[in-house]
Prior knowledge:
This protein is of the alpha+beta class. It contains 12 helices and 14 strands. It has helices spanning 12-18, 32-37, 73-78, 80-85, 87-94, 99-104, 107-113, 119-127, 140-143, 210-218, 222-226, 243-263; strands at residues 5-7, 23-26, 45-48, 58-61, 64-68, 130-133, 137-139, 144-146, 149-150, 158-164, 168-175, 182-191, 194-200, 207-208. The strands form 4 sheets. The protein has a 5-stranded antiparallel sheet with strand order 4-5-10-6-7. Strands 11-12-13-14 form a 4-stranded antiparallel sheet, sandwiched between helices.
Amino acid sequence: xxxxxxxxxxxxxxxxxxxxxxxxxxxxxxxxxxxxxxxxxxxxxxxxxxxxxxxxxxxxxxxxxxxxxxxxxxxxxxxxxxxxxxxxxxxxxxxxxxxxxxxxxxxxxxxxxxxxxxxxxxxxxxxxxxxxxxxxxxxxxxxxxxxxxxxxxxxxxxxxxxxxxxxxxxxxxxxxxxxxxxxxxxxxxxxxxxxxxxxxxxxxxxxxxxxxxxxxxxxxxxxxxxxxxxxxxxxxxxxxxxxxxxxxxxxxxxxxxxxxxxxx
Length: 264
């Protein structure tokens, strides 16, 4: 690990002011610290957001579940409010990593890191969430822009994410056994804005599966999702799964997600 300066501000204004030169925000540290230990990443200064109380918390606000950026996966998974209003999101959070990762990892850190196999990315797209920052509101559909890339500007701080509560929704993933990252993860929802199907683990960033959305808009059934053939042309291939296998599993996992949504 390279040498760096460490700061732990007490409020948002101080955190934003500390981002000068080669500086980065530190959320849960589950990805950034590991990358720095392996010398895959370096920064002159880390600005730890863990001491900023108003970046944490969960509330149900009308038709949305609003979660602070520094809220841990464990807090989302165990929240009675999330379990009641948006059980699919609670189940998703409970499926991330292991208990130690869930105790430290945060919602804001996860989506800012934009790992192509992360679970929360599917929820942001699958629910049509809005990412709130210290500067603006960013529509979930435009937030992920590429491999580990987002629409965030330099120094922009995620403060919360607002997830619309759907009529039906579920997340199902085929997980890599060691990391529990998604080899194929699919979030399906049906709400006022129609049907949304978001996929993670298969491309450089999470994406919406339009063909499956169209099929489910006509018939919200597992059979309709499973019948859609997904092209493997731009799907990732690695030692865990070929592009053809992942493409075939997208429809299968989507059908399971629909079945789970209908069962709730």
